[in-house]
Amino acid sequence: MTQFHAEPSTDALSEVRSEPMIIAENVEKWYDNNFHVLRGVSLTVQKGEVVVIMGPSGSGKSTFIRTFNALESYQKGNIVIDGIRLSHDLKNIETVRREVGMVFQQFNLFPHLTVLKNITLSPIWVRRWTKAKAEEVAMQLLERVGILEQAHKYPGQLSGGQQQRVAIARALAMQPKIMLFDEPTSALDPEMVREVLDVMRSLAKSGITMVCVTHEVGFAREVADRVVLMADGLLVEEGTPEAFFNNPQEERTKKFLSQIL
Amino acid sequence: MTTTLPPSSSNAPPITQVGPIAWMRKNLFSNWLNSLLTVIILTTLLNLLVSFLGWATTTAQWQVVPANWSLYFAGRYPAAQFWRLFTVLGLIAALSGLTWGVLVRNVPKLFDRNVLIGVAIVAVITVLLPTPLPYRLVLLGIEALLLGSAWIGKKIGRAKPVVGQWLPFVWFLSFFVVLWLIAGGFGLPTVSTSLWGGLLLTVFMSVVSIVLCFPLGVALALGRQSSLPVVRWLSILYIEIIRGIPLIAILFIGQNMIPLFLPQGVRPDNILRGIIGLTLFSSAYLAENVRGGLQAIPKGQTEAANALGLNPLLVTSLIVLPQALKISIPAIVGQFISLFQDTTLLSIVGIIDLLGITRSILANPQFIGRYWEAYTFIGIIYWLFCYAMSWGSRRLERQLNTGH
User: Exposed site from B80, B242, B258, B324, fewest CB < 10 Å?
Assistant: First the structure.
């Protein structure tokens, strides 16, 4: 797998790690049916940091990271992304979404567009790049994720692992400062998990800020700077992978780890 | 003791499982009941066919068709101006050819076997048509024009693929040229719309209504899904009211009541009123077809597009609508086919379309009682158009299929 080569600027800054990219303070959210899904969650992610969020299903972890690019609204608390406050009425969402890339569990590629068009769509329409520039960047990204030869196929002709790698390339094409991964390997056949994790691993080492909801313990141990456990809409425990997996403090964490390890 | 089976020498399936005999055994004569049903149905169909052919070749007096050739096709359009209609036909043939050529520019062989067979059949039919020789020659010329422009279209498409993006615009412009050629003015003698009739009028009204009702229907479907309450309510109100009124009532309202609301002396053209009625009616149904397609698009598509920073307008026009329309093609074309057939209702409100002209032909004492022949003939014409539309929709679906 090709390694991602970090831009010089990010590389230098990633060492410093004093610039918060994501600040979430006491975020609370109710669904329309009054279900209190987030009950005051706070999390700060520094520039270049890789944070893995774990937790049982229904714990609100997906909902939580989806508030970072305003796919979900929230009713109480504060979220600041790269210095821009996401207001409750979601007025400045498009500015924020340009800086935040997202990869979904179900890939969500656009089935009516070729792989190349999937990737160039947003740079052309949102960033206003020329078609030539967008395609050049797209081809570079496809080479990095190892599927250059599939550029002119349609998503329906690719395997799940290939589709997810296209989805990662599509998100990266906007040159985001933050990448969000919402259970990126949960919908994949076991033999395809690895190729996606390899891409994510080299991406993490490139110095981009990453927040991943995932159950891949190996991945978390290897690349995460911090691991966070969410349960019942609350943040239960956070720590380095070492501390989190080997020496958990909370009962809830111990119970969760005993179920997945 | 073990026995190893020798590997099969051939990769082809055994002969008993392929070929017409195997097909018939499987699908027509699989058991005694199916065999009995097959025999009964085949005999009945054969009987019907034989008696129809017997009638068509002996009893039927087909001269009602050639004798009223121009009435069927152009109504009371002045014969001296027929060249304009042929020019329209030529223009459409040339444009269709160009479009076809550009669309299939990447196919190695433009005129493959199926196309050649089709061309030959059309050419033979044209030569056999019971019309004056000059008309037949012109029609053959138009067919040649179609093929020629397809060839040119392929050449141009190869050299400059950008041309493909200009074609919709050229078609749009050509509509006004066609309108000018048919209606006259600007140097050509005017032909009043009251003289338009027959197939010309049927096709003209259908095409204009289809072109107008499509954007209106899509807008209504999107309006019905809108997050703005007023837009949503108005769309629902419109759709539900129109769907609650029979088309014939809308056409009567258009023909008889609209003039009452307008100032004295302002009397919109009869045909225009017919087109407006058809458009307003069909767009409500079309909106529901498109809405079905919109609802079938998974929420993840919108979310992914939003996450990429696309604004709502771009999400709808680049991601949701193209997929929704693709899903709704069969339903939309179905709606277009009904619209085409609904034009016959206009003959009740005094517009002389293909059905209307047939009724006036049958009122002519010379052709009294020739119902079967006259209606069979227009039945075939209607069928040809409807079948062409449904064939086109299937082709389009296959072309747009991006799955495996």
Answer: B80
